[in-house]
Amino acid sequence: QVQFVESGGGLVQSGGSLKLSCAASGSIFSIYTMGWYRQAPGKQRELVAAITGGGSTNYADSVKGRFTISRDNAKNTVFLQMNSLKPEDTAVYYCNLYPSSTRRGSWGQGTQVTVSS
């Protein structure tokens, strides 16, 4: 089982930036495709971005051009740089394996991102 601890969320104004971090357990972190997910109140959890062990990335259309996912395999950490934030980005952000149904994946506490108008 791989476990994750998210950090870096906060309250920012529209147009601002935040960088989220996700620290993962496990000695073979580098082989996994990782995803950042978010869940807004009353809405389904959705995939925001994903990155393979080799660094290939994909983004949801809603964040493309604004968010950048990256990873540091030596530190078992994945990042999400969020720029040009919008109120609709407000959600709890989680990291997990991608797809999230992967047997060794798990959900951590998440980190709250709130974007004010």
Describe the structure.
The chain is mostly beta strands. 0% of the residues lie in helices and 47% in strands. Strands 2-10-9-4-5-6 form a 6-stranded mixed beta sheet, with no helix packed on it. The protein has a 4-stranded antiparallel beta sheet with strand order 1-3-8-7, with no helix packed on it.
Descriptors for this entry?
117 residues; mainly beta; 6-stranded mixed beta sheet; 10 strands
Computed CA radius of gyration, to the nearest angstrom: 13 Å
Distance between the first and last residues' Cα: 39 Å
Q: Main sheet, how many strands, which sense, barrel?
A: 6 strands, mixed
Helix percentage: under 10%
By DSSP, the count of extended strands is: 10
Mean pLDDT: 95
Strand proportion, as a percent range, falls in over 45%
Tell me the quaternary state.
single chain
Shape: globular
